[in-house]
Amino acid sequence: MISTELDLAKKLFSFAGMGSAVSGDDATSVRIGTVTQVNADGSISVRLADTGETVYLRTSTPVKVGDTVSIIKQGGVYVVYALDALSEQISKQEQELIDFAGALGDLGTQIDGKVETHFYSYTPTTGNIPASQWSADEKQAHAGDLFYNTSNGYVYRWTGSAWQQITDSRIQDALNAASRAEDTADSKRRVFTSQPTGPYDRGDLWVNVSNPGALKVCKTAESRAGAFYASDWVLATSYTDDTTVNELIKSFSMTQERAYVSITRGNSAQPTTGTAYWWSFKPSNARNAPTVAYCSIPLANVATPKYFGGMGEWTLSDWSWTVRWPSTFDNITYSNLPIVIMGASGFGEWCFSTSYNRDTDGIGPIVVTRPYKVGGTIPSVRIEIMAVERRL
User: Which of 168, 280, 305, 373 could, after both became Cys, cross-link 293 (CB 3.0–4.6 A)?
Assistant: First the structure.
């Protein structure tokens, strides 16, 4: 039986509650699991890695049995990310570049030590670009250049005087993959078969013809003729990984700011409060995505009056702290207070907390009250705060 989205939300909340102040279906969680079943109606079964329990949901993300996925709540809906698919995509990109280098390995004897590959949607002749723009000397220097017709997939090699069609399937497949890359938007990619010299552009390739797997790609363009900087070139596999990660980083923003903490007077010796910071994390390209913020406040010399109750001896501090919201949280109102999860690190310590200040109609700073522990004394601890904007 397939559960509804509400059932899934409740099930995920039951895993993420952690005894915190979070309530209802507003819990925010990230779960990792393995797909155990894919059904014809688009629903899937996922076995969670940390609990072994199975959850059910619908997703448009293409997955198969055995895939590792993450389940993240974004803007009130649960989004499934296929982690294995991302890894396979990166590996495929790496292999395409290596295949491209291998296919061009026999071009190492070119006159000028480089091969240019041109991408246009027509059949090349001596009367159209690029050959029509070459002088007699340049035509000889360009011997070995490749031309990829993006409309039909045919590949041609320049002989020095004319274009000759070639049928090497490795080159055809590699150029087909290369033609879809963003850095071929200017219809040209250079392939250097000896140490490059400027000018060269981002995305140009440098292949070691004796070891085609040792392919480098240009990450920083150089416009000056004859110039060369080794730092402009990186291994193609590193370039692929970094590019993917950089694109991911562009999708998020993270900021750090000082957390302003004030302490309320108690009856015992005053604890010491160390410097604390808010770390705010937000998807920058997702509409109405909430900001998630984390703060860790170090405390020392925590006062420990002892109380006795039904659970045994409780050790509490009679001091309270207030923590100002991070500046990344917008438009906090009484009806739109952030969700707050709060606790104290260490050996079984907790703290009572509220996410509002009654003196300011509910929209003041976070109030942290009475770190406590069942039995014993409270050592130096950290109050941990996780806050999430509430998007109504």
Answer: 280
Kind of pairing, strands 188-192 and 205-207? Answer: parallel
Q: Kindly report, residue by residue over 89-142, the tens digit of the pLDDT.
A: 444 554 555 555 555 544 444 445 567 788 888 999 999 999 999 999 888 888
Q: Model pTM greater than 0.70?
A: no
Q: How far apart are CA 362 and CA 384, in angstroms?
A: 21
Tokens linked to 108: 């190492």
Across the chain, which distance is largest between two alpha carbons, in Å?
98
Residue recorded with tokens 């890894």: 87
Q: What is the pLDDT of residues 27-47, one digit of tens each?
A: 345 677 888 988 777 778 888
Q: Is 244 helix (H, G, I), strand (E, B) or coil?
A: helix
- Tell me the residue type at 281: F
Token pair 């071929």 in the structure block, residue: 184
Which 8-state DSSP code applies to residue 362? Answer: T
Q: How many CB atoms lie within 10 A of CB 30?
A: 11
* Beta-carbon count within 10 A of 361 CB: 10
Residues pairing with 106 in the sheet: none
How far apart are the C-alpha atoms of 84 and 228, rounded to whole Å? 38
DSSP calls for 68-89: EEEEEEETTEEEEEEHHHHHHH
Instruction: State which fold the 5-75 domain adopts.
Output: OB fold (Dihydrolipoamide Acetyltransferase, E2P) (2.40.50)
Numbers of helices and strands, H then E, in the chain: 5, 25
